[in-house]
## 1
Amino acid sequence: MRRRLGRRGWAIVVVLLALGLSTPVIAQQLTTTVPLPEADTPTYEAQYGHWETIELPDTDRVNAVHTALLHTGKLLIVAGSGANQAYFEAGTFKTLVWNPVTGEAKLVPTPSDFFCGGHAFLPNGNLLVAGGTQRYEVPAEKIEYAGGALKIENRLPVTRQVPAGTTFVSYAGGLYKSDETITLPPATPIPGKHNRGRFQPSLEDVRINSVVKGAAGVLAQGGTYHIQGLSKKLAASLNVFAGAMTLEKEQWEGANFAAEFDPITERYVYVLPMPHKRWYPTLTTEENGNVLSVSGIDGAGLVQAGATDVFNPHTGRWSKGPVRYFPTYPALFLMDSGKLFFSGSTTGYGSASKGRQPGLWNLKNNTFQLVPGLPEPGEVETSGSVLLPPAQKQKVMLIGGGGIGESPLTTARTAIASLAGRNPSYTRGPNLAAPARYPLSAILPDDTVLVTGGSEQYRGEHESDIHLARIYNPETNSFSVAAPPEIGRDYHSEAILLPDGRVATLGSDPLYANKADTVVGRFEQRIEIYSPPYLFHGPRPVVTGGPSAVARGGAATFTTPDSGEIEKVRLIYPSAGTHDTDVEERSIAISFTRTPGGLHIKIPSSAGLVPLGWYMLFVDNNKGVPSVARWVQVT
Ligand code: CU
């Protein structure tokens, strides 16, 4: 049934082309590269691969807003409230652990709304999940009480709390309340001898609302506020100020809860909360193994001004990182040099002019070296980014994207950042099959990259999901055609390489369900799995034994009866993706020597190249066919 639909889809495209209803560029690409597929024939599959659709039972379906591959081979699918306000209000937050080989699924207790938070793997294989949703947005027509963002600075070196329901008095005498309890971190000592006894105040944001309905609570100007009933002494240690109070739409608000998901016990274990509240943050691993949490929307609905938080996986403590502003969900990749490369990709919110230029960020001295040459720099929002395989080449591909916000601009441009030398720069890559926001990518074990899905318009408007896939080969800097997926994937979707060499795609959150954009869209809950052409190219090599842990910079021997025909060994760090942002996934080329019945491998020693943690060890034979991966922990 599915395949027939697929063929009918192509037939329609061809008819449209014959009628001249499509653009010449697309016409050329489709007619020259895609035959009408006899999808199930071995010849077709060996050239284009094969997609298969999976529908989980009703009880196991979740909105895949976040997906990560655990070292147990299972997918961690995190919905939280899953873009569903009713679930948010009911406190119904969901996480599913799903085994893509056996189909076994398990819902996991999820106490906090991790919807639109961030995540990064830790050296022990746990997934650090931090931030999420404190409040859903409220459209202007539902706003009865004027409100806005209030900031409180704490000048004392002690933690203090401002309880929910506290009354704030504006400079004009108006009364406002917050229904959140605000925890104010202690002020921190300013370093340096001459600063002894001086403290840098901590800062917290919260939304306050007028206690009187309607326009009476509106205040066009920001200014100083005070807290009702506070003693003079305490009041003197706090600075309270707020922006304008309006009846405009109330923005989404970020949260600061944080937990480690343990793949063995399949449970969340709470850790200390992140110092700053964040919705749409990026979490990325640093050279030293700490995790840096960047950007996001704060507790008052504003984009973080630049404060970053650092999680130390050994102590479980958070500290301050370098201050730098980025729009939300910035794509930040750890490079061999220890610097983070910001590709330019972001998704969600942020200044149109600030923090959008690609560059290399040196965390040690907080300097930022711009990387020039990105074509169509105004169309990078909702683009994809991937550290190309093998990671030693230090190249990042930026894929598609569009104008800021709901801009109608979308591009088919790809660009390759070459970051190894002294003069890092972008050059234009081959165009996608169609202009795409939210394109998905997954590194394959043969050093190619599957690029699939996306939509031509903002959040799939006007049924613009792209049912096309391509495979990018970094060696030839070109795309080849892959079998078209059945299911469209736009906002809130992911593509994840599985240990058996297949790729799972999940999620998609179109605004509308019809071409006229008159019917509200539904979150896509079907999973689709792609088997690349290499799975139809003959027997797979096998790795039969070897250690489960190897030191970074160390060596190890793995047994295989196929040693004579092995041509590549790759360590692939598992994906953890959301909102076009997957900065975890990387494939490292491993040098090896053949031994009788085995392979002796050597792990590179660079901490910027090889973050500690669990990897998939793939071996590829001389026909480009990969083994099923063996999980190895780099320690
Ligand atoms: Cu989101």
## 2
Amino acid sequence: MRKNRNSFTGSIGFVLAAAGSAVGLGNIWRFPYLAARDGGGLFLVIYLILAVTFGFTLLLTEVAIGRNTKQSPLTAYGKLRPKWKGLGVIACIIPMMIMPYYCVIGGWVVKYFLAFLTGSGVQTATEGYFTDFITDTSTPIGMMIVFLFLTMVVVLGGVDKGIEKFSRIVMPLLVFLIIIISAFSLTISHTDDSGVVRTGMEGLKILFIPSAESLNFQSIYTTTMDAMGQLFYSLSVAMGIMIAYGSYMKDESNLPKSVGQIEIFDTAIAFLAGVMIIPAVYAFMGKEGMQSSGPGLMFVSLPKVFEAMGPIGNLIGCLFFAMVLFAATTSAVSILEAIVSSFIDKFHMERKQATLAEGLIALVLGIVVCLGYNKFYFEIKLPNGAVAQILDIMDYVSNNLLMPIVAVGTCILVGWILKPKYVEDEITKNGEKFARKGVYNVMIKYVAPIMLVVLFLKALGIV
Ligand code: PHE
């Protein structure tokens, strides 16, 4: 083992970096939409319950594996049980698949941020702007390169002087920006062309008050599945990241406490994103405006909302895209680090070499993803019904197929082969208490694997 393994300077550095990974596009463009669609309060309550049980279990397990083995995802599983090496390989392939398209989307954010920064944000609200932009053969590639370069610079700086330092600056800024925009969003009152007045405060009710229709068995089931899928993605588990970050954690730090803090951070930002987006979209576009999520929400609907705000819209849009850029870079940094740490541990590369190698792979694949909207354009239907291009296929395979496999595998390895005691020992080795041990044991052995299998079957369109 390498003697000079990098590490975070302390718990706060670790928590901020891991929260930086967890807080990403999913918190901003999917959580608010799901919450509004699934009957407001009901989704939030189910999400919270799952976060402290299911989410806590998965996150704690990965961080514990990382801290205990002091290995990257690629090598950690094999160190625990040589026969399980293959799981490590999948856990390393996932971030390698995500990195290129995450950078492409990061490039879209850079483009919109620059548009608002230079005062021409209104343009982004014109019909067809987004489609014209992504189908262009050169600009998206250029923007992706800017984003990838930024990410590589941070990772090249190392764990403490690169990732931790960056997270310590960017995460507080992100919180600050999201609070400002949310507060603004709540003060909005807008009269539409037919004279109907809608306020941000009314929009807030849609987010928090459970709708009567949502309280039946069928919708509780759908909501639970949605909340679970969202939580799984949002915590950045099952893609090796938390193992890599855990391996840089100091042995003295309190594991369950840090994991709890990451969850609180991630969930609070998701809630705030809801408070920021739903009231504004509702006030300016009504309930129909809330039908979109993902790129459609961020790059098509929201620019229209900023335009409708009048002169202040450009400033709000600029702050918004700066905030999204922070969220996306800290996530991309964590994806890259999971791969870089794997290359370092497995192939004994230097950090610089490993970063450049993965940077090159991401660049080539990223270009292919960009060209998927023009030169390589095709349409294919995924098992879950969505019409997809290259980006969506990579997203589907990594998130919906490979990630549940890694997560179920991890639950079986820790719950049944190593036994939950493995995680307990890692947690209590400094004399710390493991308060949620009972919940953890039941979760890791039974509930989490079953839930993950259902999630997997759902992605295949089977249930
Ligand atoms: N967890 C991030 C989010 O909620 C997304 C992410 C995906 C981060 C993949 C890292 C890797 O948006």
